[in-house]
Amino acid sequence: MLASVGSVFVDLLEEYRRATFFFESGDPLGASKLLEPIIEAEPHNTAVRQLLARAYFNSAQLKRAESQLRALIEHDPSDHYAHHVLGRTLERDGRFREALPHLRLAAAMKQHADYEDAVHRVEEWLGKP
């Protein structure tokens, strides 16, 4: 029994490594296909969920990215990166009013040029100073 559990863990870890390679090699769709069964087996694994959200975002599967990011934020409301990527996802989907609070929250939690640039960009879209 323990051997099979161990081999399942090794298989999931190996698939995660493959997915990371696919993602970093510019194949987010391929990465997402590898990550989906992992997140089913490990639904509380935030590293897998974050990479899956990024893979969905990079392959323009915005609704799926949004779902993964909202799950991350529900698990940890102080996750500035999840708020930022959710804001970017909503921005990319043309949902600027929904994006702005997440982008502002991320920028308030962590000073980062990308975070501030995203806030300014969406504020401009909305005609805010």
From TrEMBL:
Pfam families: TPR_19. InterPro entries: TPR-like_helical_dom_sf (IPR011990). Gene3D superfamilies: Tetratricopeptide repeat domain (1.25.40.10). This is Tetratricopeptide repeat protein. It comes from Paractinoplanes ferrugineus.
